Structure formats: structure tokens, C-alpha cells
Amino acid sequence: ERLGDLLGHWAPGRDTRPETSRRSYSANRIMAAIRNGELVNHYQPKVELATGNVIGVETLVRWRHPQDGMVYPDQFIAVAEASGVIERLTGWVLNEALAQSRRWSLAGIDLRMAVNVSMNNLASISFTDFVTEEAQCACVPPARLVLEVTESRLMRDPRAPLEILTRLRLKRFGLSIDDFGTGHSSLRQLCDIPFDELKIDKSFVHRAWEDETSRAVVAVSQGLARQLGMKVVGEGVEDREDWDFLRCAGCDHAQGYFIARPMPAEEFLAWLGEWRVRVPA
Ligand code: C2E
Ligand code: CA
Ligand code: CA
Ligand code: CA
């Protein structure tokens, strides 16, 4: 049922970033960070492979810790999820991302804005209304917001998320299935939830050029998404080979360090101007 399981033991887990330190933070400290304005959203472009056009950005939260420097989500999302702080955290990230989307839109830049949503956010039915109101307040049309979802293994009741996601889709919000192929995202979900975007996990994209099995996973995911009428994003595009491979495989969009690292909003316009000049053919 899970693609990762179907494909056997080698299915890799989450990609890890080289880290100098790995601290853990308490739920109270994370809560304080939200209150104190220590969080910041970075944005990473999603680009159309055929044209090089920038079609959207993904929001990735960071914590500017006063003592520890920049702290990445892998060091605090899990605690936020386990403690319930994730509700406030997602609220903050979403609110800020929508405000940014509005600012760019007023500057004539209309991009789809993707926000990562935790399965824990999909436990209460009021989440649909929350997202709808936030988008309305920011004057962002639903179709411009994309919610990226990764399945959690620890889902107590899969019916609530299913109902919430279906309601969101009916309201025309975009839904993206993240980390596809890792075993965190299942084929079952593809049948049950009306996703409109599938993101092939970066572990496959990295290896596609040299590893036949990864290549097969990309091809199968692409075909599946095509059949189901979804757009396919390859994430973790780190070099020219990855880009060329995804393009040839028929994927729609690409995201990764080859295009741009996640960056603060202030840097985005400068990047965009420069990108238009050096789009890979
Ligand atoms: P994700 O949603 O799969 O996001 C992609 C991750 O890959 C990001 O790590 C991004 O910086 C990194 N990345 C982008 N391009 C490349 C590349 O070319 N090569 C490699 N090796 N990595 C690349 P980041 O920002 O550390 O985020 C890690 C995870 O934390 C995210 O994985 C997402 O699951 C979670 N996350 C981030 N922001 C939020 C948030 O606001 N809310 C929630 N619930 N989760 C978040
Ligand atoms: Ca994501
Ligand atoms: Ca991902
Ligand atoms: Ca590679």
C-alpha cells in the first residue's frame, strides 16, 4: 500500500542536512520563540522545467535563535508536533506567508505560495475555516495557496485529515503530497484525497542520474501523477544532471539548490531578476 513498502527495504528516509550541532528545544521555548518574533519564513522557488518560469515558492520556517544562531525545522518541528505547539506554529507561518504573498502580488508578482502543514494540524475540523479566513483576510485567492502534506505514521484517526483536506480542495486550495515515495506518503492517500500536486522526494531525485532504481521511482511517480491529473514536482534538484533528468522524465516542476536555496523574502526579487537572465535551457 505504501510505495516505500511496495518498493522494498531500500526506500530511504528523510534527507539529512550536515549539521554542526543538534540541540533539542522544549515546547515552551518554541512557544516563546513564536511570541518573541524569532521565527522567520524563507522561500524556495518552484520552477517550470519546460520554460524555466518561476511558478511558485515553498515556505520553509527557520528560527533565528538569539544564542544558537539559525535553527532549522528538523530541530524543532517534531517537538512542536508532539506538544501541540504546532497549531500556533502553523498559524504563524501561514499568516506570514499569506501576508508575503499579498505583498508580492501587489508588486505584480503572482506566485503560488506553498506552506507545509503537519498532520497534527488536520486533527480538528476547524482548520478548514481557519485557513479560509486567513486567506480571505490577506486577499489571497484559495488557488494561490498550496498546502503541502506529509503523512505521519502516528495518525490516530485518518478520517479527520481526509475530511479536512477534501473540504479544503472543494474550496479550491491547492493540495500537495510531499516526500512521495518515502513510505511517509502512501498510494492509499492518492486515491482518497484530491491532491493536485505530487512532490517526488529529493532522495530519489539526487540519485536518479546514477541509480537505476531511483530512476524507476521517478518514472513511476511521474506516470502515476500524470494518470491522476496531478502536477509533478521534483525536489532536491542539486545540479544540472538532476535538472536534465527530471525534464526528460516529463516532470512539470523542479525545486532545489541548483535553482535557489531557500531565502528570506527580501532577497527574492533580486534573485528573480537574476534568474530570468540565466534560466537553464
Ligand atoms: P520538506 O517539506 O521536504 O522541505 C524540503 C527540505 O529540503 C527543506 O529543508 C529544504 O531546505 C531542503 N532542500 C531544498 N532544496 C534542496 C536540495 O537541492 N538539496 C537538499 N539536500 N535539500 C534541499 P528544511 O528547510 O530544513 O525543512 C525540513 C523539513 O521541515 C521540511 O521538509 C518540512 O517537512 C519541515 N518544515 C519546514 N518548514 C515547516 C513548517 O513551516 N511547518 C511544518 N509543519 N513543517 C515544516
Ligand atoms: Ca514541503
Ligand atoms: Ca519534501
Ligand atoms: Ca545528482
TrEMBL record:
The keyword Phosphoprotein applies. Keywords: Phosphoprotein. The chain holds residues 119 to 399 of 406 of the full protein. The keyword Phosphoprotein applies. One of its GO terms (biological process) is phosphorelay signal transduction system. This is Transcriptional regulator. One of its GO terms (molecular function) is cyclic-guanylate-specific phosphodiesterase activity. Residues 23-276 form the EAL domain. It comes from the Bacteria. It comes from Paludibacterium paludis.
